[in-house]
Automatic annotation (TrEMBL):
UniProt-recorded name of the protein: Small-conductance mechanosensitive channel
Domain of life according to the entry: Bacteria
Family matches, as InterPro entries: LSM_dom_sf, MS_channel_C, MscS_archaea/bacteria_type, MscS_beta-dom_sf, MscS_channel_2nd, MscS_channel_C_sf
TM annotation in the entry: 46-64, 84-106
Cellular compartments annotated: Cell inner membrane; Cell membrane
Length: 308
């Protein structure tokens, strides 16, 4: 039992109000549920229509992913740019599809209100996921401007390997030792990145040492002839063999040539060159010296023979 104070005719009166019975409360709840169910049934056509819009959007997106690269082949021959166009167009189609489905589901929603809500939502999401969006836009710039593709070997800071995939947020790189590295695109965008396989050929250099008592010009000629005979050396580029400087125990000769650009091609060529130069110098009788050490003492050392 509740009492409510009422003011009327200048005098205050207390009026007793009895609580609802269980039956009355049940009727109220049932009536509310009935109105909700009736409203849901009345709104069902809008729900079905919005689901149809989403289904049509999904079909369009799947077709775009399946045949999108063929549509953009005339625009560019780079696969990364073709993938970028497909991804951006997919995002635009999903945004338009969701907006249209929302306007169908809620008939009072106008395009202006929908775009305003999307703008506020994008600001909130951008502040909450700042790093994710930085990597996203860095990925777009990498796909748009950077010259490396899937399959290229790149080197960035301490990460060296073959690019397996370039996605919007991350780039996966397979090291030459087999590990898979997932690199944020912002890391590649901010740091210097070397594309080792940008060309099909690459210049390689090693240093060879010959003894000070040897004929340097003759050693250069022997090395030049040995390098020219190697199969992994490209014939369309010049071989360069020049004395480089005076080492601790040898005259250093720099040998430079061109070979394939992949890490395997470089290692293979280095192995062949080192083997060929060593064999040619041995056959010519030219010494490749070990490091020499000369020890000087302040006082003369005495020699004493130990007796048993």
């Amino acid at each position: 039992m509740f009492r409510v104070q009422e003011e009327g005719g200048g005098e205050s009166e207390l009026k007793e109000i009895a609580p609802e019975t269980v039956a009355e409360a049940t009727d109220t709840v049932v009536g509310s549920l009935d109105r909700i169910w009736t409203g849901f049934l009345g709104h069902t056509p809008y729900v079905i229509a919005s689901l149809m819009v989403l289904s049509a959007t999904l079909v369009i997106v799947l077709l775009l992913r399946r045949f999108g690269s063929h549509l953009f082949r005339r625009t560019t021959s780079r696969k990364s740019l073709q993938d970028l166009f497909v991804r951006l167009l997919t995002i635009v189609i999903w945004i338009l599809g969701l907006l249209f489905a929302a306007m169908v589901l809620f008939p009072g929603l106008t395009p202006a209100k929908a775009l305003g809500a999307v703008g506020l939502l994008s600001i909130a999401i951008g502040l909450a996921f700042k790093d994710i969006f930085e990597n996203f836009f860095a990925g777009i710039l990498i796909l748009w401007r950077f010259p490396f593709e899937e399959g290229d070997v790149i080197e960035c800071e301490e990460v060296t390997g073959r690019v397996e995939s370039v996605e919007v947020r991350n780039t996966t790189i397979r090291r030459t030792t087999g590990e898979l590295v997932v690199v944020p695109n912002l890391f590649l965008f901010k740091n210097p990145c070397e594309i080792l396989t940008n060309r099909i050929k690459r210049r390689v250099s090693i240093t060879v040492g010959v003894a000070y008592g040897e004929d340097v010009a003759g050693a250069v000629a022997v090395i030049q002839k040995a390098v020219e005979a190697c199969k992994t050396v490209r014939e369309d580029e010049q071989i360069q063999v020049f004395p480089k400087g005076f080492g601790d125990s040898s005259i250093d000769i720099e040998v430079t040539w061109w070979t394939g650009s992949t890490p395997f091609a470089v290692r293979e060529s280095k192995g062949e060159i080192v083997t060929a130069i060593k064999k040619a110098l041995d056959e010519a009788g030219i010494e490749i010296p070990f490091p020499y050490r000369t020890l000087t003492f302040k006082e003369a050392l005495g020699v004493r023979k130990e007796t048993e």
